[in-house]
Amino acid sequence: MKEYILSELLNSRLSLLSANLPLLKQCLHGIERECLRVTDQGRLAQTPHPETLGSALTNEQITTDYSESLLEFITPALADPAEVLDNLEEVHRFVQSKLGNEYLWSPSMPCALPAEEDIPIGYYGTSNIGQLKYVYRKGLALRYGRTMQCIAGIHYNFSLPEALWPLLRDKEGGADSDRDFQSAAYIALIRNFRRYSWLLMYLFGASPALDAGFMRGRAHQLEQLDPDTLYLPYATSLRMSDLGYQSNAQAGLTPCYNDLASYTDSLRKAVGTPYPPYVEIGTHKDGEWVQLNTNILQIENEYYSNIRPKRVTYTGERPIQALASRGVQYVEVRCLDINPFLPVGIDLQQSRFLDAFLLLCALDDSPQLSNGECGQCTSNFLSVVKQGRKPGLELQRNGQPVTLKEWAGELLERIAPLAALLDQANGGNAHAKAVDAQQAKVDDPELTPSAQVLARMTEHDESFVEFSMRQSRLHAETFREQPLSPERQQAFETLARDSLAEQARLEQDEVGDFDLFVGAYQASILAISN
Predict the structure, then answer these.
(1) Architecture of domain 3-526
(2) Measuring CA to CA, which residue among 57, 137, 528 is closest to residue 317?
(3) How would residue 149 be classed by pLDDT, with cut points 50, 70 and 90?
(4) Do 272 and 239 touch, CB atoms closer than 8 A?
(5) CA distances (Å), 490 to each of 63, 213, 291, 485, in order?
(6) Which of 73, 197, 237, 495 has the fewest CB atoms nearer than 10 Å to its CB?
């Protein structure tokens, strides 16, 4: 281990953690996995969200994201990532048992899509909150197109134990309150994540190719792999590239991650600032709502970012209200592709590595990002998603060129002691092995999921859709071969039934008109003061 690689601050924090090892078993993890429903022909399922899965509005584990056909599975936040993945797998088994002749699409990039207007928008019933979700999605369709919204990903939620922050603050002589110190530490984690997240795209990017129809005839820089497939030879994650999509409205919106107040402030302004092209469209057409407002963002979650600071919200509370009043509770990593070779799109080895990576981001020095460094982070990220496996690829570090291979190796060396500490706390050597597995990918790009996807397509002479459908069938087979125990099946059935009853109750008890509801919802954000 090259000791000089570890900063003084990191060494000091590692020794504090070594003296409080049980704390590391209290980190919490949660996963959200998005997933298209497709027909046995590999086309978008245009059937409504199956009632047997419960209500998309009120089922806490099975919902829809943008489209009626885009499922989202949500695990509870648990201390043991193995339990989180078991839970995610159970959700998949239950859902597959209810899909009839439909399949869960295996990769992040979508199947062959119908005409733009035939992609169904998620519907959540007649309650005010259900209608709000629907109109928000109509606004997304208007602003960015429906095709873009059919891309799926994995969101990884992670928090460090609350008891750790006061220990660190006291050791470092901080004067902040517990809440402010904790929020500042999570914002510092996010700054480091911005610096290093290109590494995750190299290691776990799994979308080097896509269905040619996805581009809808727009100009692009992709190459033709076969008549139906576009790709870039060294791409890791086309999902996270610009793909010709530019949100002009969001272009000037780069929330500053220097402190929580400036972050929430920039989002609050975006939700309250009119954007002329949206103003021109208006909120209504032929008496129907078409978007929630005409501002840069309809709601704060519309801001596309690779990672978000989060806090569990109370009923009726908005995400920024929760952050402003109670501080940051966890982070949501949003840039992970679904691995089409894995039945649930992610595995325990990846989860263990992510924990060690996020610990490094949280505990290492994290100076403020200057404007120059912000731009450098963005261009490094874009270089890796488009050409991360290119031999000799150079990134920019502190304004100087460095090869991806060299920098990745150094980062893995810095992550190793955090993996060792996690192993000490949990027993075994699973975290260290997870780091070794990533080093193997740095040494040999052919081991990366993105290279594997292209290799399998070439080997089987398959288009992107054919490859993806083959994987989808394999995963369906895996789920069918090992059905849930009767008790677990029953638990999910009950969850589904109860959620339908809950939606019906919400609709029955609804008071007040939708227009007033939207007005109050808009006003709630303007009332926030930092």
Answers:
(1) 2-Layer Sandwich (3.30)
(2) 528
(3) very high
(4) no
(5) 18, 41, 39, 9
(6) 495
pLDDT for res 528: 59
- Residue whose entry in the numeric block shows the structure tokens 């009043």: 325
Tell me the domain boundaries of the chain: 3-526
Residue 514 CB coordination number (10 Å): 16
Angle at 205 between CA 201 and CA 206, to 5 degrees: 175
Separation of alpha carbons 42 and 103, rounded Å? 8
Secondary structure of residue 266 in the 3-state scheme: helix
Q: Measured between alpha carbons, how far is 274 from 266 in angstroms, rounded to an integer?
A: 14
Got the DSSP string for 401-452? EEEHHHHHHHHHHHHHHHHHHHHHHHSSSHHHHHHHHHHHHHH-GGGSHHHH
Residue 44 in 3-state DSSP? Answer: strand
Q: What is the pLDDT of residue 442?
A: 98
- In a 13 Å sphere around the CA of 92, the CA atoms on its Cβ side amount to 30
Strand partners, 440: none
Read off the tokens for 33.
Answer: 């996995």
Classify burial at 90, counting beta carbons within 10 Å of its beta carbon; exposed 0-12, middle 13-18, buried 19 or more.
Answer: buried
Q: Where are the beta strands (DSSP E) in 196-348?
A: 209-211, 223-226, 229-231, 284-285, 288-289, 307-310, 330-336
Residue 371: pLDDT band by 50, 70, 90 thresholds?
confident
Average pLDDT over residues 131-156: 96
Predicted confidence (pLDDT) at residue 354 exceeds the cutoff of 80 = yes
DSSP 337: P
Q: Phi, psi at residue 312, to the nearest 5°?
A: -60, 130
Calpha distance 203→438 (Å, rounded) = 7
Per-residue burial over 144-156, b = 16 or more CB atoms within 10 Å of its CB, e = otherwise = bebbbbbbbbbbb
Whether pTM > 0.70 for this model: the answer is yes
* 177-197 pLDDT, tens digit each: 999 999 999 999 999 999 999
Tokens of 101: 């002749």
H or E segment to which residue 483 belongs: none
The greatest distance separating any two alpha carbons of the chain, rounded to the nearest whole angstrom, comes to 67
CA atoms within 13 A on the CB side of 297: 20
Residue 211 contacts residue 229 (beta carbons within 8 Å): yes
pLDDT band at 527 (very low <50, low <70, confident <90, very high): low
